[in-house]
Amino acid sequence: MRIMLVGFGNLGRGLSRAFIQKAGFLRKAHGLIPRVVAAVDEFGAVIDEKGLNLTKLLRATEKAGTVAAYKGGKRGKRALQVIEEVEADVVYELTLTNIKTGEPGLTHIKRAMRAGKHVITSNKGPLVVAFRELDSLAKRCGVEFRYSASVGGAVPVVGLAKKLLAGNEIREIRGVLNGTTNYILTRMSKEGVPFEVVLREAQELGIAEKDPTLDIEGIDTACKITILANSLLGMNARLKEVKRAGITRVRPEAIRLAQEVGCTIKLIGIAKRGSLEVGPKLVPLGHPLAVGGTLNAVTFKLDLAREISITGFGAGPKETSSSLLGDLIDIHRTLGG
Amino acid sequence: MELEDVPGQLVKALEPISRYGGNIQSIMHQREKKTPLGRLPVMLIFEIGERARLNRILAALRAMGVRIVRIGEREGAVRTTVLLIGHIIHTDVRDTIDRLNALKGVMVSDLSLAMGAPGQESAARMTIMADDEKHKNLVISSMRRIADRKDLLMITSLEAE
After folding, report:
1. Higher confidence at residue A95 or residue B69?
2. In a shared domain, residues A271 and A329
3. Which domain holds residue A282?
4. Do B58 and B17 share a structural domain?
5. What is the pLDDT of residues A49-98, one digit of tens each?
6. Both A111 and A171 in a single domain?
7. Taking the model in full, what pTM does it have?
8. Which of A23, A28, A171, A257 is the most interior residue, by most CB within 10 Å?
């Protein structure tokens, strides 16, 4: 399969490493030979229809900070140009999330679909801003569209619901969907350290961003709830419809009061038809959503299976490449590979 | 109930409740409100599975000289816990509780407070007993309105709504 990587940050590099590491496995187990024919970042692009050497691509990028440093690469070459000009089967859209406009990812995805290319993305922006539009555009263009990595990192939230639980009506989805806030709440509950101190520690460890607003105000979780509501509950929800509270007011004393009655406090996103919500909740210790550290967890409430919960790593380039690679194999199978 | 004002009475009075499988939820011991006969009024809330066991508890209490003044029962009652974070004292916690208790079929049965440093927000945990699910939802939504007005962050239990 000919693959185009649009965006070559942590996730693009993590995926490339997975391609290298698992080349033999993909061929033997799935009959899949991924050939990366183009890679683009904000500074330029590199194209080779015979397939780029990913080890060299990683090395060149690490040294110069752009894929354009690879032999034959072009600085200033734009993603849209590459998407239209280069023949490829699948476009990975892995640029940074912008939840206000969805750009540049939104335009990348639309152009790729119109050019008849299948799309896999981890980018929440386009999904939050225009899920319905993208979903129907994919159908109109006759291309596959996958976004497993946008929610839950390595945790197969979308795939589990869409494939293995397909016989159920999903009544409700609730989850711990943000590793940063879960880390902060876990540390506060274990050590009794104030919010500001744990936040600084999380920033030093690279678990929290320099500007942590999206995480601690619950906006990232609200984005994921919007995506799940649209993709799994058939809603046409907007981000602003999610009732939202973050964790900035949660203090260790409050967690202690919760612990005294056998509970802890978690930032929970809840999606059900007619009500989308993100906020701190009392969760009984031992409950499937009472996961620690940076873990994510999701519980589905279903008409037949009643309840199914899954847990796993919600972030990290290697972990997320599990979802990105899974989507590729899924498309390969769908197409009869 | 009313207890003699001598040491050890409260503990003694609690014993039959646990012996017959009662689950004590709150104890309000009001030392400043002595009765004319010098006895201490105590309000107890506990959960118990069957009426027969309740009767055994009452008999045991009476046998040991405890005066039971009033009994209120709520069958099928549900309990829920809610945390509040904010300027709980300054926004009149008494008023918050009174407003909830004013609702029919609802009672705040326990309150724990963790004070923040001066100027900082505090946290409170409330246990609320409601006659049934309907009344529980009622009290939660009315609490949400109070919390909004007093700028308190309200944290409900995951199973509460």
Report:
1. A95
2. no
3. 161-313
4. yes
5. 999 999 999 999 999 999 999 999 999 999 999 999 999 999 999 999 99
6. no
7. 0.86
8. A257
Give residues with Cβ within 8 angstroms of B72, minimum separation 6.
Answer: none
To the nearest 10°, report the CA torsion of B78, B84, B87, B91: -30
Task: Say which residues have a Cβ less than 8 Å from residue B23's Cβ, sequence separation at least 6.
Answer: B46, B47, B48
- Which of A249, A250, A282 has its CB closest to that of B156? A282
Which residues sit opposite B1 in a β-bridge? Answer: none
B114 and A249 within 8 Å at the Cβ level: the answer is no
Number of domains in chain A: 2
Q: Does B116 touch chain A (CB under 8 A)?
A: yes
What distance lies between CA A137 and its chain's CA centroid? 21
Residues B148 and B83 in one domain: yes
Q: Given strand A275-284, what is the order of strands in its sheet?
A: A243-244, A275-284, A263-272, A170-176, A295-302, A307-313
Same domain, A269 and A165: yes
Among the listed residues A244, A260, A246, the one whose alpha carbon sits nearest the alpha carbon of residue A189: A260
Interface check for B58 against chain A (CB to CB < 8 A): the answer is no
In this predicted complex, what is the ipTM?
0.87
Q: Are A282 and B80 in contact (CB under 8 A)?
A: no
Domain count, chain B: 2
Q: Within this chain, do residues B92 and B135 fall inside the same structural domain, yes or no?
A: yes
Considering the candidates A77, A224, A266, A281, report the single residue annotated as catalytic. A224
The predicted-structure confidence for A225-278, as pLDDT tens digits, reads as follows 999 999 999 999 999 999 999 999 999 999 999 999 999 999 999 999 999 999
Residue of B nearest to A289 (CA): B158
Residues B89 and B128 in one domain: yes
Q: CATH no. for residue B84?
A: 3.30.70.260
Cβ distance of B125 and A251 shorter than 8 Å: no
**Of A253, A263, A280, which has the smallest distance from its Cβ to B114's Cβ?**
A253
Do A37 and A63 have their domain in common? yes
Residues of B in contact with A289 (CB under 8 A): 158
Contacts of B158 in chain A (CB under 8 A): 174, 266, 268, 281-284, 287, 289
Structure tokens at A132: 């319905």
Q: Please compute, for residue A270, the number of CA atoms within 13 A of its CA located in the half-sphere on the CB side.
A: 23
Segments forming the whole domain that contains residue B47? 2-63
Q: What is the CATH number of the domain that holds A101?
A: 3.40.50.720
Tell me, yes or no, whether B71 lies in a domain.
no
Contact pairs from chain A to chain B, CB under 8 Å: 65
Closest CA in chain A for residue B126: A257
A240 a catalytic residue: no
Q: Tell whether the torsion through CA atoms of B56, B107, A257 and A221 is positive or negative.
A: positive
